[in-house]
Amino acid sequence: MTFADFLPLILLALVFFLLIIRPMRERQKQYSALRQMQSALQPGARVMISSGIHGTISTIDDETVGLEIAPGVIVTVARAAVAEVVDPEVIDPQA
């Protein structure tokens, strides 16, 4: 057997890696970064939950977050629903 006989198999393995394995690794890195951000949440942080609602964290425990979405209005959401910490200047309603 020559190298040319194994070339299609090598190309198939390369395509498999590029289309399946590499994107899966990138998704795992993104998931890990999201979990790390969620574990570092602190009261007073401005956040956006996965449904697009913005608010300030008022209370936090292991599984839930108390989110103040308007003065005096606090909703309880799952901690996993927090999608990102938001810079307060970005959400300025006066802009």
From TrEMBL:
Q: Which Pfam families match?
A: YajC
Compartment(s) = Cell membrane
Assigned keywords, A-Z: Cell membrane, Membrane, Protein transport, Translocation, Transmembrane, Transmembrane helix, Transport
Primary location group: membrane
Read off the InterPro entries from this record.
Preprotein_translocase_YajC (IPR003849)
**Where is the chain membrane-spanning?**
6-24
According to its UniProt entry, one GO biological process term is: protein transport
The annotated topology with respect to the bilayer is: Single-pass membrane protein
Name the GO cellular-component terms.
Answer: plasma membrane
Q: Does the keyword Cell membrane apply?
A: yes
* Record family assignment: Belongs to the YajC family.
Name this protein carries in UniProt: Preprotein translocase subunit YajC
Q: Give the originating organism.
A: Aeromicrobium choanae
